[in-house]
Structure formats: C-alpha cells, structure tokens
Amino acid sequence: MNCLDFALSVNSLRVYYLSQFGTVKAVDDVSFSVGKNESIGIVGESGCGKSTLGTALLRSVPYPGRIVSGQIMLGGQDITGMAEEEFDNKVRWKKISMIFQGALNSLDPVFTIGSQMKEILKQHGYSRDQSDTIRNSLSSVLLDPSVMKKYPHELSGGMKQRVSIAMALLLNPEILIADEPTTSLDVMVQSQIINLLKKLKTDRNMSIVFISHDLGVISEVSEIIAIMYRGQIVELGKAYDVYNNPKHPYTEKLVSSVPSIKNRENKLQNPSEKFADTLGSEAGCKFYDACPYAKETCRKDPPVINHKNGFVRCWLFE
Ligand code: SF4
User: Fold this and answer.
1) Exposure class string for 217-250: b at 16+ Cβ within 10 A, else e
2) What's the whole-number average pLDDT of the chain?
3) Using a 6 Å cutoff on CB, does residue 304 contact ligand 1?
4) Fewest CB within 10 angstroms: 62, 143, 209, 301, which?
5) Does ligand 1 have an atom closer than 6 angstroms to the CB of 287?
6) Cα(313) to centroid of ligand 1, in Å?
7) Which range (133-142, 160-169, 258-267) has the least confidence?
C-alpha cells in the first residue's frame, strides 16, 4: 500500500518542546497509517506525548512546541509544510478535526450552543444563515435541535460532550481526532459516547484517531492500537492481538494494569513505575529502567521489528 491508500499517514514525526530546562521530545520518531473508515487508538500514560501527537496532526501544537521533522500526509497530500493560511482555509476542521481533551469545559458559558456553532461556521467563511447545518449536526449526535437555544450550564456532561462532537463534525471532516472523549463521564455515558462515535464513523465513512490512557476503552473502539511510551510508539498492531497477545514488555504491563472481573486474584501492575520523563536525549530503550527483561544491548536504541500486522520496538524480537 502507498500513502494514497490511507486517509492519514504519519512518517517519522518529531515534535519537541524547546524550554529553558532543555528539549522535551514529546513525539520522537512516530510513524503510523490509518485507512479510510478505519480507527486507530493511541494509548499511553499521562505525559507520554499522545495529546501532543493529536495537536500536531492538526498543526496546533501549543507554544513552545513545534514539529521538528517528519511528514503528515492526508490522502496523498503532504500537509506538514503547507502555508498556514492555506491549511486553515482548506484542511483544518474541513478535512481533519478534533475533539479536544476537556472539551466539556471548553464551551463558553455566556453564549448559547447555537451561537457558538454559528461562530465556528463564520470563522470558516460561511456567512449565510447556517441554522440547518447546525440542526443536522446536532441531530447526528442524537441531540434535539432545540439544544441550539440552550446555554452550556443547562446541559448534562454527556450532552455537552455530544455538542463538542457535533462542533468537530460541523464541516464534515474525513478524519476525526478524539482526545480522551470519555474522560470525566460516568460509565453509562461513556458507553453511549463510544457507541455514538462508532456509528458516526460508519455513517460518515470517517477515520478516527482515538487518544486515551484507557486501554480497555481503546480496545473497544479501535481496529488498530498503537502503544505510546515516552514519545515513541513501542508497539502497533491489530487491537485484538495487542490486547490479548502483547509483545512489548510495556504493553504487557499496561494490559496487566486493566482491572478484570475474571481475574480478581491478579495484582494490578503499575506500568512504568517511573514518571515518564521525556526531557533529555539519552540513548537506549526508554523503558530500560522499568523493564524486567532489560539486558546490556538495551542501552542502545531498540530496533523497530515489523511483523504481519504491525511492529514492535524492542531488542527481544531482533
Ligand atoms: Fe525491555 Fe530491552 Fe525491550 Fe527495552 S528493548 S523493552 S529494555 S527488552
């Protein structure tokens, strides 16, 4: 397959934060592809770089971060170096859109939902009355169009999350990035939101990049899973394989940290035991200090070993 066959292709992407304390390699040589109408889940603990990766795909990395090298392809088009104005007019929200982490709290409390949605359309050059577009977008996330007239405080957490999804879908993007879309929702609402995103993906023939720390949730919604640790994807494969037959030692620990009703006797594991410090440029495997299989060779950068449906970054598979 070449990059034209994929909705999104990321090649050797590096995103660094240049601070007075040093360089934080938040995303460090990340590569993956997502097909049309396919979903990928990016999983990892807090600070591993997954949200930075999401914002980089939308070219909205917060200061002082920046894309240092690598390539982001949408279909066959390289958008990495596209002029900002062109990217804003043709790509952002139109081809690739995002539900930001904490979107529940990002709605403006002093404006109705309808006026906030109209503002998005206005910012993208839609000047005529777009009430029908807004109504349709709200209906697609199973909200009554009367929500247009409501203020955020009049909505429940689940309804606010649906509104943020409707906003992200307003301009019919081909790719949706969903950063922790179920965080701070109760379990029942989480499940409704997950089912809704699955339905939208099929109905709109859309590709989705799910970002979450919750491997259980991700394995339910994604066809492919990428496990991220300290800025790198350490394992990528079909969701079933990664969850049931993890290869990388970090993935093993991550899977053991998911509570299970069946194996109540199992002691839950702390996947990395160390704070995921991405500062510095030390060579070797980033999981070295916490890995039970670490050996001398692991002090050198581990190779990326390809297998049938993905890859693993570890000396054990050399
Ligand atoms: Fe463990 Fe070595 Fe593999 Fe790193 S490369 S995960 S230290 S075995």
Assistant:
1) bbbbbbebbbbbbbbbbbbbbbbebbbeebbbbb
2) 88
3) no
4) 62
5) yes
6) 8
7) 258-267
Q: Hey, which of 228, 288, 289, 297 would you mutate to test ligand 1's pocket, going by the most ligand atoms within 8 Å of its Cβ?
A: 288
Q: What does the pLDDT average to over 42-60? A: 94
Place of tokens 């035991």: 273
Give residue 315 CA to ligand 1 midpoint distance, Å: 6
Q: Whose CA is nearest to atom 5 of ligand 1?
A: 314
User: Which amino acid is residue 318, in one-letter code?
Assistant: E
Sheet with 77-78: strands ordered across = 22-35, 6-19, 65-74, 77-78
Band (pLDDT 50/70/90 cuts) for residue 100 is confident
The rounded distance, in Å, linking the Cα atoms of 61 and 308 is: 33
Residue pLDDT, tens place only, 184-224? 778 888 888 888 899 999 999 999 999 998 888 888 889 99
Higher pLDDT, 2 or 303: 303
